[in-house]
């Protein structure tokens, strides 16, 4: 009899354990089903930006969504190589691709950093080009998202986070920015072209990393036109660049404008290519 009681007790214990295990599996199954049915759970895309590359990594719904985000990234950062690591996932949150496209465009306010779309939450982090870019990003985040989406940039700094540069390092960094791509102006005018405005942002980012240096901004022209006109135009162009840098948050007291006209060519003015090299802005730094 005791053996039967012991046997029944063991059976009861096994039944209870199996029931408990079954409940656990049911709970897991319910959670899994809920996750599968809720497209806002674990649907994520991250876009990372450095000065060397752009990377898109995460979930996309299909070929059309993939094409949209890749096209936007290529158009926003045409000078940077693009890498993609996509996972095709069905049932994206409504408006996810549109939000991703908008987020990639706004990433241009950053010198480096990333934006992550997790469900319907969009989060930016990193360093803005300068304080003005940080302010403009915050303003752009307040509207224009698909229904249900929200965005934050609390992790974005209003300028560079790296160490302060000395004069030599700052000059080298500015040379890296301007050697491959010159700041361009409208023909015969002192207005920076829309295409070159982003280059001025890059200059601002460098100058903010060497806050104790004084900077002479020198304008140069080709040989077209009179000496007097070219001198005045080169000086006006230098002043325009300074005005843009001050608007970006760099202290005006750090700058001096210089105009050299056509007097300091880098190449012969006998060719179009040479004239293009001679139309330039230079930067000279000192303590």
Kindly identify the CATH topology of the largest domain: 60s Ribosomal Protein L30, Chain: A
User: Which residue ranges are poorly predicted, with pLDDT under 50 across at least 5 consecutive positions?
Assistant: 1-37
Structural class: alpha/beta
Calculate Rg over CA atoms: 29 Å
Provide the number of structural domains: 2
Helix content: 40-55%
**CATH architectural label of the largest domain:** 2-Layer Sandwich
CATH class of the largest domain: Alpha Beta
Number of helices: 8
Sheet with most strands: strand arrangement = 3-2-1-4-5-6
Give the averaged pLDDT, no decimals: 86
Report the portion of residues in β strands.
15-25%
Tell the overall outline: elongated
Helix and strand element order = HEEHEHEEHEHHEHEHE
Please give the alpha-carbon distance between the first and last residues.
Answer: 99 Å
CATH evolutionary superfamily of the largest domain: OmpA-like domain
Total number of beta strands: 9
The main pleated sheet reads as: 6 strands, mixed
Write up this protein.
- The protein is of the alpha/beta class and 287 residues long.
- It has two domains: 44-157, hypothetical protein tt1634; 167-286, OmpA-like domain (60s Ribosomal Protein L30, Chain: A, 2-Layer Sandwich).
- The protein has helices spanning 2-37, 63-76, 96-106, 131-141, 167-179, 197-207, 227-247, 272-278; strands spanning 44-49, 54-60, 82-88, 110-118, 121-128, 150-157, 214-220, 255-259, 280-286.
- A six-stranded mixed sheet has the order 3-2-1-4-5-6.
- Helix 2 (63-76) packs parallel to helix 3 and helix 5 packs antiparallel against helix 6.
- The chain is elongated.
- The termini are far apart.
């Amino acid at each position: 009899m005791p053996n039967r009681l012991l046997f029944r007790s063991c059976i009861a214990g096994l039944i209870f354990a199996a029931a408990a295990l079954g409940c656990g599996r049911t709970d897991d199954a319910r959670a899994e089903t809920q996750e599968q049915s809720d497209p806002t759970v674990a649907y994520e895309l991250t876009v990372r930006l450095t000065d060397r590359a752009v990377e898109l990594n995460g979930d996309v719904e299909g070929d059309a969504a993939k094409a949209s985000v890749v096209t936007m990234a290529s158009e926003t950062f045409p000078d940077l190589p693009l890498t993609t690591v996509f996972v095709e996932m069905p049932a994206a949150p409504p408006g996810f691709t549109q939000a991703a496209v908008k987020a990639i465009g706004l990433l241009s306010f950053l010198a480096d950093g990333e934006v992550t779309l997790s469900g319907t939450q969009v989060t930016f982090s990193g360093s803005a080009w300068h304080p003005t870019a940080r302010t403009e990003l915050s303003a752009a985040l307040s509207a224009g998202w698909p229904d249900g989406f929200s965005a934050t940039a609390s992790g974005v700094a209003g300028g560079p986070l790296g160490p302060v540069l000395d004069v030599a390092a700052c000059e080298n960094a500015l040379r890296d920015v301007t050697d491959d791509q010159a700041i361009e102006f409208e023909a015969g005018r002192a207005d920076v072209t829309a295409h070159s405005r982003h280059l001025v942002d890059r200059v601002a980012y460098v100058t903010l990393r060497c806050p104790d240096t004084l900077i002479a901004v020198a304008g140069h022209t080709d040989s077209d036109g009179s000496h007097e006109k070219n001198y005045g135009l080169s000086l006006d162009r230098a002043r325009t660049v300074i005005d843009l840098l001050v608007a970006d948050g760099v202290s005006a007291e750090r700058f001096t404008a210089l105009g050299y006209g056509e007097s300091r060519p880098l190449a012969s003015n006998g060719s179009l290519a040479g004239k293009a090299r001679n139309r330039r802005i230079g930067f000279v730094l000192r303590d």
